[in-house]
Each structure stands twice: as structure tokens, then as C-alpha cells.
Amino acid sequence: MAGIRSAGSLVAVALSVGLLAGCGGGGDTSKVPESLESFTAEEIYKRGEYELENTRKPEAAVKYFSEVERLYPYSEWAKRALIMQAYSYHRARDYEEARGAAQRFIDTYPGDEDAAYAKYLLALSYYDQIDEVGRDQGLTFQSLQALREVIEQYPDSEYARSSILKFDLAFDHLAAKEMEIGRYYLKRGHYSAAINRFRVVVEDYQTTTHTPEALMRLVEAYLALGLNNEAQTAGAILGHNFRSSPFYLDAYAQLRGAGLAPAVAGDSWLTAVYRQVIQGKWL
């Protein structure tokens, strides 16, 4: 027994030297030791955790987590290492690899308790790539889809609550894109094109923060085209839902300047929207 303890102590010393080399100054912690095959899955996994928590080099942690999966593919540690790969890739802003690792976890362990987190990481890999409004919004649509899946598949999880908040922000982001394009057309006098964009906001993104401005811009565009009925109806919808908004005050001033007032008039898509408002189906 004494001999076994002595051998175990030597292994522990070798482990501390081999795995933790570089914790002090001057060491290169990003290099994976060549002799990892002699270490247990737990030892390699914990080295990955150390890299992630102490070196601020998530890409280095990925190497260790990947080795756990390679050397011990059917172990519990391999499963844990796979979800940590996804997290580490995300921390490193390597979103494509993060998605790949998260999806592999979902495919391999669909019933595992961490599947919800893997799904959430996959959604985040899209969400965190949403850039300024002027960029292509394809990633925003993918983010919405992935977040919706988290909400629907894991409704009682903490990730569902976070996903709902992020879904609303991503949804608002799409509306902002439509508004940006609509303003561009409006400024250049392309009123019909502008109206089409503002209509999308009113009909498809009515729960976002951009709806009041979209309605005000519709008043402006329709007045410019001489379509007074539509302008008045847009103003009426705006007044019904957002009377305290500065956009309503602006729209009201524009209508008054044209000798008009907010009122339901004519028969257009806006008239149908107004009926929905009155019937309580607006939001």
C-alpha cells in the first residue's frame, strides 16, 4: 500500500508539472501537452476549466475539452466537455464553431438536462452577431427562429426567460431596419416605396417601439401624395394608441397644416387596422 501511495504521489507531481506548467510567468498555456493520453478525462477537463477561468484564452480551453472528447468519447466527462466546447467557442467569438459544438450536443444528448443550455448557446451564437441596423438581417431572422425554439421547447427554463427578452430585442431590430429604409425613401421623395416599408412595421412589427414613428411617417408620406383619407386614418390610429407620443403631436400638426384632422376615412388597409384597434385586437 505504501508503494502504491508513493507511485500515486509521483503521478500527482507529474500532473501538476505537466498540466499546470505555465500558470506562473513565462509559460505558454495555449499549448496542449503531448502526453495527455496519460491523464484521466477529469484531469484534462479541469485543465480546460483552468484555462477558461484564469488565462482569458477560451481558444486554449477548447483544445483541452476537445481532447477529452477525443480520448474518452463515451464518458460522462466527454459529454460535459462538449457543452464546454460550445461555451468556449462562444467566449472566443468563434460563433460558427460554437453552433457546431452546440448542435452536436443536441443531436447526441437530446434528453440531457444541458440540452436546453446547448440550444440557448446556439441561439446566442446568432443573436450576438446581430450588428448595427445597416447590415444584412439574415442573422437576425436566424436568431429569432433559434430563440423561439428555446422558448417553445424549454418554456420553464431560465433560458426561456432570457430568450424572450432577446427575442423582443431582435424583433425590434428588424423593425428598425424597415424604418431605416423607409426614411431613406421618404427623404428622397420615393413615397410609395417608403409607405411599403412603414406598412410592414405597422402590420408585422406592431409590438415594437417603432410603430408610433411608422404611423407618423405614413401621415407624412400620404399627405405628400395627396391621399388624405389614408393620412387621416394613420393619424387616428396613432392618436388612439399613442396619444402621448411626440410622434402623434407631429402627425397632428401635419394634418392640421393641411386643414385635416385625425379621423377614419375611406377604405384602405389602414381602415382595417383601425377596426382591429377598436375591437381590441391591435396588440
Automatic annotation (TrEMBL):
It is a lipid-anchor. It is found in: Cell outer membrane. Keywords: Cell outer membrane, Lipoprotein, Membrane, Palmitate, Signal. GO terms for cellular component: Bam protein complex. SUPFAM superfamilies: TPR-like. GO terms for biological process: Gram-negative-bacterium-type cell outer membrane assembly; protein insertion into membrane. Residues 40-234 form the Outer membrane lipoprotein BamD-like domain. InterPro entries: BamD (IPR017689), BamD-like (IPR039565), TPR-like_helical_dom_sf (IPR011990). This is Outer membrane protein assembly factor BamD.
